[in-house]
Write a structure and sequence with these properties.
It holds the Pfam family FCD. Keywords: DNA-binding, Transcription, Transcription regulation. This is FadR family transcriptional regulator. There is one protein chain. By secondary structure, this protein is mainly alpha-helical. The protein has two domains: 72 residues, Arc Repressor Mutant, subunit A (Orthogonal Bundle), CATH 1.10.10; 156 residues, GntR ligand-binding domain-like (Four Helix Bundle (Hemerythrin (Met), subunit A), Up-down Bundle). Helices cover 69% and strands 3% of the residues. The chain is built from eleven helices and two strands. The chain has a two-stranded antiparallel ribbon with strand order 1-2. The longest helix has 23 residues. The two termini are 24 Å apart. The N terminus is likely disordered.
Amino acid sequence: MSLPYASPPAARFSAQNRSRALQADIMELILERDLKAGDALPTEAELVAALGIGRNTLREALKVLQALGVVEIRHGYGMFVAPANFDALADGLTFRGRLSLRHEGKEALQLVDVRQALEAGLIGEAMDLWTPEHLAEIEETVRAMETAAASGKTFTEVDEKFHYQLFEPLGNELLSNLMSVFWKVYRQIHHELGGEQVNLMENAAVHRGIVEAVKAGDKELAAERLRRHFDGIRAQLAKLRDAP
């Protein structure tokens, strides 16, 4: 028998709001002091005095900021502004996607939508920056896919390299990090949907088609082929929605 739902007490929400406000205050302090990734934060004693809070309250807030990738706590050395780290984002999105696979896959489909929009939307801009040397590198990557497929071997790592190479000329570090995040999420969702059943030769051919559109300088076709690249996983997710 299910238990009746009870709303969390107002005091709990109040505590959560205070915790978020404190986290925001710490981040604002980092910005105001013009600290960069790797720079040391003020000591606990200095933060307690500056923020007017207790030491335990500060430590709880710092733990949350560490989990969010804002602060890095090195025991015995101090606290530092954390370098860019998207692991927490990848873990969180992967969980949301996997959870949704138990419930019609809506969020998993939304994650696929975002990756699709990111790649199809930027391929034209990336093509403007491609050099013959870069195109040769992409060609070598696709050939590696085709060789692996012909031998019946999966090529997950080569596939990831291919999608990274497509947009490498943009020199956008944030984009590269987001691509890595969405690749990890997509790969996990794909695996749980039975990704091992993918036709390797067809998959390699899809990537070959993208490169051929790029070689032809056809931005619209390249974007369309990137969008179609996601048709397979969309069809699988649609089955979840249609299942009784």
